[in-house]
Specification:
Helix content is 82%, strand content 0%. The protein is built from 14 helices and no strands.
């Protein structure tokens, strides 16, 4: 019956849906305890009413905020798609900055420390992440080929590796490698231990991504390459992998971004990356939140850079597959 009403009265159904969404949004803001103090700042004459009727003022505040959001969305939809995207990013970024500004941050302290955080922390983070990404990619490719092998020994080794390193927390792997290897006579530094742990952990996750990408290519491609006289290695690297990259790149890019952020875990063994410096520099004047927010923004900017690079690679391989 509801479906019939929607088909027969589409305009009324759309308006009812909008009103329902506004009501639900207002109820959510009210339940979250949205403050009504902003109305007193904008309209000073309402201060007395807000003080005398806190519940009613909260309800009015929730409704007004919901209406502002609805009007804002309506205005944004009048713009072309690209401008809509830019508008949404700008508005959300401004709201994020206002949220951080409400923390009463010391911007002078941030300005004093951010140079060292970038020159020392960012360079170390990128160094560790870049090497780990290369090693993890090589491990993932080898692991994917091994999991597709008909050799039981090789398949067993690959499945044990992926099960173990996907099953252990990354932090535990860092500790085991850094503190465990010296127990058997091999002393490893903090940075190599972090790189090894990141490579092994994300290599295990990416193994499944590579395997799925390779298996997504129809068997006829490999059979055709074999008929042309190509060897198994030539078939894999010249025929299968170039086509599989379109499937492999998006989830692999997500893993790279996750690895960039998880590189902060190597700070537990004393590596001077972004998170380690954010903690230690913030302790000097008890300005922890300033340094943590600054580190978060740096990680975000680095992630945006990886997202841009991923998009360009996807576009390149997309054109390759179209041809």
């Amino acid at each position: 019956m509801i479906g019939r009403l929607i088909l027969n009265y589409p305009d009324a159904a759309r308006r009812t849906g909008i009103l329902l969404m506004l009501a639900l949004l207002s109820a959510a803001f009210y339940a979250l305890g949205i403050s009504s103090a902003w109305m007193g700042r904008l309209v000073p004459v309402t201060v007395g009413w807000i003080t005398d009727s806190p519940e009613a003022s909260r309800l009015v505040s929730a409704v007004l905020i919901s209406l502002i959001i609805a009007v804002n969305i309506k205005l944004l939809r009048l713009l072309p798609r690209r401008q809509q995207i830019v508008g949404v990013w700008v508005e959300l970024f401004v709201l994020l900055m206002l949220f951080f500004y409400s923390f009463n941050l010391s911007f002078a302290f941030i300005a004093k420390k951010i140079g060292f955080l970038i020159t020392q922390g960012v360079s170390t983070t990128l160094y560790i992440s870049a090497i780990s990404i290369v090693i993890a990619t090589v491990i993932a490719l080898a692991g994917a080929i091994a999991k597709l092998s008909k050799n039981g020994v090789i398949y067993g080794l690959a499945t044990f590796y992926t099960s173990l390193f996907r099953g252990l927390p990354l932090l535990m792997q860092i500790y085991i490698i850094y503190l465990g290897l010296p127990q058997v006579g091999y002393v490893i530094g903090a940075v190599p231990a972090g790189i090894l742990a990141l490579s092994l952990c994300y290599g295990a996750y990416m193994t499944e991504i590579f395997r799925a990408g390779i298996e997504s290519i129809p068997r006829g491609q490999s059979e055709g390459a074999t008929a042309l006289g190509l060897s198994p290695n030539q078939t894999m690297f010249l025929v299968i992998l170039p086509q599989a990259m379109r499937v492999i790149i998006p989830p692999t890019g997500n893993q790279f971004i996750a690895m960039l952020k998880d590189s902060s875990l190597v700070s537990v063994v004393g590596v001077w990356e972004i998170m380690y410096l954010a903690r230690t520099q913030g302790q000097t004047e008890f300005r922890h939140i300033e340094m943590l927010i600054t580190a978060s923004m740096i990680y975000w900017l680095l992630s945006i850079g990886l997202e841009f690079l991923q998009a360009r690679i996807e576009e390149r391989f997309g054109r390759f597959n179209v041809r």
